[in-house]
What does this fold into?
Amino acid sequence: MTTHLRGSARRDYVTLPWGRVHYRHAGDQDAPVVLMLHQSPLSSATYEPALAPLAARGVRAVAVDTPGFGMSDAAPGPWSIPEYARAVWQIADAIGLDSVHLLGQHTGATVAAEAALQQRQRVRGLVFQGIPLYSDEERAEKSSSYAPGYTPADDGGHLRVIWDRVRWLYPTIGAESASRQVAEYLSVGPDYAVAYRAVFAHRLDTAALAGIPTLLLHGGDDVLNRMNKEVQAAFPDAPLTVIPGGTDFVAEEQPEEFASALAAHVRAHAAGAQARGTAPVPLSKPLYTATVEAEGGRAGRVRSLTGVLDLPLSRPADRTDGDPGSDPEELFAAGFAACFRSALDVAARRRRTALATTTVTASVTLGTTAPEDSSGPGRYGLAVALHVSAPGVPADELAELVADADRICPYANAIRGNIPVSTQVTGKG
It folds into this structure.
């Protein structure tokens, strides 16, 4: 078992505005990617022994040193969890990663979850190797007393302080692993709790992660194994895989078992993002089914099985004043507008932005898609125009929310690449 900082995996750097970021990786370029985020104040060396087993199982594993940890340069100042999460996507872009599975352990799990909220469209799945879901009381207590740091001493006494802390946290790990951790603590510096404080100050919106394929995976002796009840309540659809005898460092203690469980999850959900835009994407979790029956076509009637919807239909060309009939385009526009408006709320919640009075107007046009004199049966198609108005939201901020909503809205995802959609945004300024 190799637990030292260097290891045998390929190691590279990318350069970003705050400095260089170190990462180690293994696996084929075309394989599904798992981007691995370590716990604090350690490094990607935690995952070194599992990288080759993951590659052997058809997964491209990329383990990153969080900025300020391991062999990555420090951030310009103390970062919040959203800032660490934004850095994850900057790092992924610099490496050339598009859609990924995100695996995070402890601090890394909190960062991974927030990163998924920021760019959900790029996340094929999540793996939490222990995610800290602290109560407000726990976060306050830990903020005041956890990880107090050390003071370098001429006689090297601070080395004993670090060693004793590592041994207090992980009394059963081997001396080689503990020694590596001492080196990792020293590489960060006396204030090694900077990312801890970001976790304690952060409230994670676990409900907003619903629908992302998620696996709970950790060793049976992981220090956060005690939180299984809270974590399973927050992620009720996520299977829990506990590797017996494994500590926080199960990836180096039992790399084959760890890689097998992780690779199975990654492969099972690898097709999701790859399929977008090229093939129908199966639902991983059906949430609701609406059933409507139609009689008589465009001059008939539609009724929902719930009885709530019961409308006559009429052809627009035949419609007279006072005609109560609707039509498929009008119904589609109503559904699209309502769905997109709801997607805006989700986007605003993920960005922690308050939406004032906001309306979405959808116009759906029916027309032909081929010249009338072309051979074969006539072809018809649709075009959609959306107008989003939010007078209280700055125009540039509203444009970003609309772009996020376009990736969230199931109507927008269903027609993408099939129907032309134009969008007009009216905000403040």
